[in-house]
Each structure stands twice: as structure tokens, then as C-alpha cells.
Amino acid sequence: MNIKVLDINSLSPHLFWDVEKSSIIANENRQFIVQRILEYGLLSDWVQLYHSYGLDEISSIAMQIKDLDARSLSFISALSKKPKEQFRCFTTKQSMPKHWNF
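Now predict its structure.
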């Protein structure tokens, strides 16, 4: 696969509502970018991420994210064919106590 540099400006504007886009560097902020696209991205954002980083790189980055939501975890786990138990967010959430149910 031909890997290309991710253009932050071509991604959906709602992904980075709380930060200045010009301060994001694609190679230095990979975990932040991957998490935002997995959780809030459109299909077009995912395609750009896939062509820029590749599935192996995306899944290895996602495995290190501590607070990935359940839907995003299921998505990347299914695509990468890696069990959810190998992702840090799965083990971290399992060790957190649940809130009381009234």
C-alpha cells in the first residue's frame, strides 16, 4: 500500500473543535488523531487515516489508548482481527468500579 502524509486540514472540522488545527502535527500527535477519528470521524476521515497510517499502525496506536469508547473499540477490534482484551481501554475500563444502580 502506498502510504501518504495525513493532511489535517482535509479532515472534518468537527474533529478538532477544541484545539487549533495548525498546532496538530500528524506524526507527533498520532494517538490524538486516531482517537478522534475512531470516536467522531466520518467514513471519509477513516479512509484518509487508513491510507496515511495503514491498519497495522492504527490498531497498534489504538491498543495504547486508555479511554476509547466501546463502539470504537469494537470497530477497530473487528477490523484488525485483534481481541478486545489486547486493547488498553478494555483492561482499564474493567478495573474501574461501576456507579451504583438505584
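DSSP finds five helices and no strands in the chain.
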